[in-house]
Design a protein that fits this description.
The chain has two domains: about 70 residues; about 55 residues. The chain is an all-alpha fold and about 130 residues long.
Length: about 130
Amino acid sequence: MTVGVGFTAAQKREFVQEYHLHPWGQKSSWLTSQGVSYDKLRRWQLAVFEGDLDRGLMPREGSPMTVPPAKRTALERTRAAERVAHEAQIAKLSERVRELEGTNDALGKAIGLLHAMSEQEPDETPTTTDPSTS
């Protein structure tokens, strides 16, 4: 049985993760506001936690390898923390890239200025006449 059509595997995984991060009592209203039925969410959950979402495969019914809801929530919180850390690292590295690009621009301007200054100097050393011969 396949998972469904219309959403990518990443979108389904993100949706399931978002659902599990909502506190108890607010999940149903959030699900309704998203326009996704609980049955569809349940199929996506099975694919995320017990199946092979990337290949669109669902687990067999009665699978002994089920993940309890409490552990699912803990897994999703861990993944959310990893995402936040990853996004912070990306922001830090992006700032470092901007800093290095600024340094590179400044060095390029300095090199250009040095080239411009060296062009103003004479190419050859002028030959001087020996004063004793005159």
